Amino acid sequence: MQDPTTRSDRDAGHVEVKNTTCYMCACRCGIRVTLRDGEVRYIQGNPDHPLNKGVICAKGASGIMKQYSPARLTKPLRRKANAERGTGEFEEISWDEAFDILEDRLGRIRATDPKKFGLFTGRDQMQALTGLFAKQFGTPNYAAHGGFCSVNMAAGLIYTIGGSFWEFGGPDLDRAKLFVMIGTAEDHHSNPMKMALSKFKRNGGKFISINPVRTGYSAIADEWVPIKPGTDGALFLALIHVLIKTGLFDRDFLVNYTNAPELVNLDENSPNYGMFMRDRDMNIEEGCFDAQNKYWWDRHTKQPVHNRAEGADPHLLGAYTCTDGTPVKTAFQLLAERVEGYTPEWAAEITGIAAERIKRLAYEMGVVARDQKIELPIAWTDVWGKDHQTVVGSPVAFHAMRGLAAHSNGFQTIRAMGILMTLLGTIDVPGGFRHKPPFPRPIPPCAKPPKGPDSVQPGKPLDGMPLGWPADPADLFVDESGEPVRIDKAFSWEYPLAVHGLMHNAITNAWRGDPYKLDTLLLFMANMAWNSSMNTTGVRKMLTDKDEEGNYRIPFLVVADAYHSETVAFADLVLPDTSYLERHDAMSMLDRPISEFDGPVDSVRIPVVPPKGDSKPFQEVLIELGTRLQLDAFTNQDGSRKFKDYPDFIVNYETAPGSGIGFLAGWRGKKGDKEMIGEPNPRQWEMYAQNNAVFHHELPKSYQYMRNWNKGYLTWANQNGLTRYIEPINVHLYSEVLQKFRLAAQGRTEGRQPPDRLRERVETWFDPLPFYAEPLENKFIDGKQYPLNALTQRPMAMYHSWDSQNAWLRQIHAHNYIFVHPSIGKANAFADGDWVWVESQWGKVRCMARYTEAVEPGTVWTWNAIGKAAGAWGLSPDANESQKGFLLNHVITEELPEDDCGCKVSNSDPVTGQAGWYDVRVRIYKAQPDEPKQSFPQFAPLKPAPGMSPARRKWQAFMAGILGK
Amino acid sequence: MTQLALVIDLNVCVGCHACVTSCKEWNTSGWAGPMTDFDPYGADPTGTFFNRVQTFEVGQFPNTQTVHFPKSCLHCEEPPCVPVCPTGASYKRAEDGIVLVDYDKCIGCKYCSWACPYGARELDEKQKVMKKCTLCVDRIYDEALPESERLPACVMACPTNARLFGDVHDSESEVSRQIRDNGGYQLMPEWGTKPANHYLPRRKTEIRIHEDELVRADNPLKKEGVPARPPADRPTLDDTTSW
Amino acid sequence: MHPAFSVIFLTTLIGAGQGLFLALFTGQLYALANLLPQQDDRYFYGLGSDLAVLFLGLGLLASFFHLGHPERAWRSAAMWRTSWLSREVIVLPAALVLIALYGLIHWMEWTTPFFVIRDALPVDASLIVGVLAMLAVFALYIATGMIYASIRFLQEWHSALTVINYGLLGIASGFTFAAAFSAWIGNGLVGFYGTWAVIITLAALVTRSASLIRNRRIKHKSTLQTAIGIRHTHIQQKAQGAMGGSFNTREYMHHQSPPFLHKVLVVFMVTVFTLPILLLAASYWLESPYLPAAAFVVQYLGLLAERWYFFADARHPQNLYYQSVS
């Protein structure tokens, strides 16, 4: 055998090295792909990429097996004329035929009633284009998967601090001294978080994980605080209670940067009850920002003064009476009163965390924030014109994602966390939470959904954005009677702040025809017949259900996917997407870019290998369809084609003619010498390719902190088209936005009112101050009968559930177990490894149990979406995924039973519509010995689709290039 | 004499398996490849890997530690697998201490794998030769690669930098320093195999709060007049006692 | 350890073949000392050696099934300085050739003495080759036994008893074989070989039982604590990094239940020791060519079970890393 040190890998075959961007999960790391004789030989993290700096994860490093997976779809497919939907009987068609079918069908819908077309996408990193397409088409029925992912995290924090975690911002672990991670948070921003965590630990920081389960990142926590699922809000409120009681809050921060000292009108008879006292005579520009015409109670003059009046020093606490007799309290006083009863002892009962421990946690946070302040010699000017010589940070950082979000009480829980962070003074400071451009945004951001049914007109674009950020009831998307216009009922009184939509109810609603029926549903990368739905068994039935006349209730289903997912089988038309290594893509500032704390970053994907078979990037499909349907954005005035293809579109599309703002912010201008704004650059792709496929604009240091109030940054953001206003974004400790909805529900306002059946719900949940309530589902469940909380989380090697088709990754996670504390097994007479039934009020699954000591004993959990339907994802019907693996979604309901009010609502947060899929309660018992040793439910195995590689080989020995042939 | 090795920091390993698959992808098309998979899309898929990450739970609820434990060939200084090989296919390189297998000499008798207490060797059941971690010997000396990338694939991949690579015989090296400073240890020391790879144990950071820290003169509550003084007409001892 | 059938056949076949040769040569030495009548060279020694060669040859053949690359087997003689396997690979063909030569000498009746020592010991080619073959056979027992006994962390194997047992069981089966062979050709040595076979079988019973007792009492040096380097009384594996199995779960584990193992133990104790002794004892009283043959067949089959158990009984420390999946 040749001496390994005398050979070079580069000498074996023809070697090429190309840079692009990963898409094995939503993290979007820079990757460097080595090809040997045109075949992928090695995918490594790009060392010159700001996001991952050369590292890569298990998935990213397995991209080869994703690229060459036999589950790849390679041909457009049409359901055979005589075949029932769901049987997976397809025939190959050409792209021309596919486009003809779509053009004809969608053309008719657009000309009559555009909202009969629904477009829902699983991945939401392409929203700028998919959203544009939907808007141009004229349908409001568009959303990505955020509604069942983490919308509560986005909405809860953005409505509080103007930014959130993940793409929007995150913990500055470079400088933090104490890091608190709450709930499952592994599967967002994974590589940067791993890198930061390790650095943080090596720098001697203390890492506290508050989580019912100790796996993943929690494994390396210095302290694990097991908590009962869905009770995080109670914990935060108790922590706030302790911080306020002991004075461990950052007074200067609260006074200067939040609405804590501002006076709230408490005149019961006023239409402005619960709103801030405002000086209506002040000359305030109207806009989507929080006008600063509010009042403080000045301790010197003992009277209300304009907020930030020269020389004034406000009281943070206190109840006062204005000269006109209006009773007022400071927002902070109301918060203090709110948390008065939320004692550690109260929270201990609910969370399962001892009161003494809650106090200690609060002390640690408060004392570290106060006594270990970081002062950086960075001069900056605040938006009120005051110069600061330094940036001061409280080094306590938080991170949370779905663990908090996926509960029906998640919005208020997350608001409580935002307030906790604010009390500690850790918003956009060194060592605390930091924003990533284009965040922070005004609270709430300016994009608004359409206002009513008239926004949807035949043959016209939608009047408004399909998704937006309501600031008051006038922004809701409802008809005169207050009923929803969107198929998923987002932005209706049921879920007024459903800023990411409710994809998880789209199929159920369309099937029932409530609020109306759809004609065509286009699903892109959304596995709605499996892990992207709650009540999976039910949804699968709805997809094949027929009305009295024998027509499918959802008449036409189009599925665009690169792989043979469970949903593909239900399609009437299948559009084969390319892999991520075969396409152009833009991680755009118009969408969710990959910005860093220090400035905006966007990036691109550039094909490194040609598309497999006849697969076509979904972006190209949209542009072709948009062109054929003569949508304004895609055609010239004479109706001719505007863009040759997607790369052409990315280069030349501008948000408005001549705006200079397009999908990519780097190398703009005719010569490519402009950043952020500039004319289209015909060589823009080339320049990205020459620069590691990424554009990173590093802001001056003085623009990198305190951006809610940083004049330099806000001015820069304004000049570069990121924001419309140079206005402070004060933290909404007290949320006037929520109070507006509450006032409407209470009938105190003139404007839009919720339907009577929803008044109480809106009044309860639109509380301007955070509160704790049990998840909605508990109301319908006998806690004694179903005593256990059931959770899922993604293993790091299977983030986003997209990879059972991957020969390497599936060896790591071939099937899943339900993890239980041994006491649960003992109490229910089953042993480690036994087959058990996991049953909720809504359904049951059979699976294998695995004992674990790393779980709060009232909780059971499993790795999500390892279980697959037989025959899907290119796997043989006897594969572990379908025979031993299981999907917990079968026991989760997408709707709650009819309430006393007669409402049947989504099993979601009543504020945001976030799917409450972490609320499910179950019981577990041993399967009978004569039952099959096989997971339940089972479905008829999927047949491979035409055009898929038939090879289900006994073995494979992958070696890239000629050597392997 | 040089002894190259990995030092694996269990204090920061989150069990992400990046090292597992980056190893597989580099090596399957490299000098030591291919790395065969059986039933890659069927029941009980199984294949050759040079490196695996395992999970252990230490202690009982609520005092549980979850430990992610990557394991690959430890490149022992006294490798028991080498002398037992009848053909000389298994060898330890004099120049850097890497233990390798020459596939052309290997007869696939599996005796070396019996002689490894760590289970670090895997027979490729298609190619019928013994395979194992090579410390990416085909990367670390490849001058066609940028110098910064002449590292094992797992080390380059590891997002938490839990895998350190270097010469454990050089007392000045980063790996030696880490072993010294952070209690680096070897697996199964009872066999005298002297594994070159070391592991760094979990280390715990704690914060201790003194009562004084909760009071302090600059407590903002003082500014807010809290605790508020009790009403002046409230009864006090003065009303009842005269001493 | 996972019992490897090729190795089970290899060790039992060559063990019996070597034992048969030792029995033949013992016969020759006894005859030299006039303790036994002279035997017919051609049939007894010649054919007997052929049988021994046949068993060694079959064993050698079986060993090839153990190799991934049998065509490279020749390479395995290279590392005789360090590897017992390499030594076995050298000694096995040497023993085979010497036994074959021994048989050939008898067959060809090249037994004219070259010289006579002290008027009592005529030294002919068969004696010289026989002594050499005997040395090779002992060396082979040791080499083969040491392959297992030298792996120090397979503590069940790492004992002199492994070599002794292997040798004694091989010799016992060889003498039983010789008894059966004698009965078959009717040369009147059934009693001689049968007696020795019983004695050696009883000796093997003692040493094998000793090893069983020893193995029950072994305190394994490696524990989960030393395997992962964490000192705690309560450690459990949750995942081993692969769910569909791996070389590690196939090569070092037998995947059989403890009751099954116990059954195998009982079966081999009866078939290796009790039954052959009873059958051989019976052949003292019942002159039958079948009883000793039956004794050999039973004992040989029993040895297959014994060898299976030998593997299954050995707990490889690497198994500590492969306890659970999830």
What does this structure look like?
The complex is a heterotrimer of chains A (965), B (243) and C (326). Chain A contains 25 helices and 35 strands. With 965 residues, chain A is of the alpha/beta class. Chain A has four domains: 56 residues, N-terminal domain of TfIIb; 197 residues, 3-Layer(aba) Sandwich (Rossmann fold), CATH 3.40.50; 282 residues, Dimethylsulfoxide Reductase, domain 2, CATH 3.40.228; 150 residues, Barwin-like endoglucanases, CATH 2.40.40.20. Chain A has a seven-stranded mixed beta sheet with strand order 5-4-25-24-23-6-7, with helices on one face. In chain A, strands 30-32-31-34-29-33 form a six-stranded mixed beta sheet. In chain A, helix 3 runs parallel beside helix 17 and helix 8 packs parallel to helix 14. The longest helix of chain A has 18 residues. Chain B is an alpha+beta fold and 243 residues long. In chain B, the strands form five sheets. Chain B has a three-stranded mixed beta sheet with strand order 10-1-11, with helices on one face. A two-stranded antiparallel sheet of chain B has the order 2-3. The longest helix of chain B has 11 residues. The radius of gyration of chain B is 28 Å and the shape is elongated. The model of chain B has no long low-confidence stretch (mean pLDDT 94). Chain C has one domain: Up-down Bundle (Formate dehydrogenase/DMSO reductase fold). Chain C is 67% helix and 3% strand. Chain C has ten helices and three strands, in the order H-H-H-E-E-H-H-H-H-E-H-H-H. In chain C, strand 1 and strand 2 form a beta hairpin. In chain C, helix 1 runs antiparallel to helix 4. Chains in contact: A-B, A-C, B-C. Chains A and B meet through strand 3, helix 6, helix 7, helix 12 and helix 23 of A and helix 1, strand 2, strand 3, strand 5 and helix 4 of B. Strand 35 of chain A pairs antiparallel with strand 2 of chain B, so a sheet runs across the interface.
Low-confidence runs of chain A: none
Name of the CATH homologous superfamily of chain C: Formate dehydrogenase/DMSO reductase domain
What is the correct CATH architecture of the largest domain in chain A?
3-Layer(aba) Sandwich
Helix content of chain A: 10-25%
Q: Using the coordinates shown, work out and report the CATH topology of chain C.
A: Formate dehydrogenase/DMSO reductase fold
Q: Tell me which CATH architecture of chain C applies here.
A: Up-down Bundle
Which strands sit side by side, in order, in the main sheet of chain A? 5-4-25-24-23-6-7
- How would you classify the helix and strand content of chain C by structural class? mainly alpha
Rg of chain C (C-alpha, Å) = 22 Å
| Proportion of residues in helical segments of chain C | 55-70%
| CATH fold-level assignment of the largest domain in chain A | Dimethylsulfoxide Reductase, domain 2
Number of strands of chain C: 3
Q: In whole angstroms, how far apart are the ends of chain C?
A: 23 Å
SSE ordering of chain C? HHHEEHHHHEHHH
Question: pLDDT under 50 segments of chain C (min length 5)?
Answer: none
Strand order of the largest sheet of chain C: 1-2
Whole-number tally of structural domains of chain A: 4
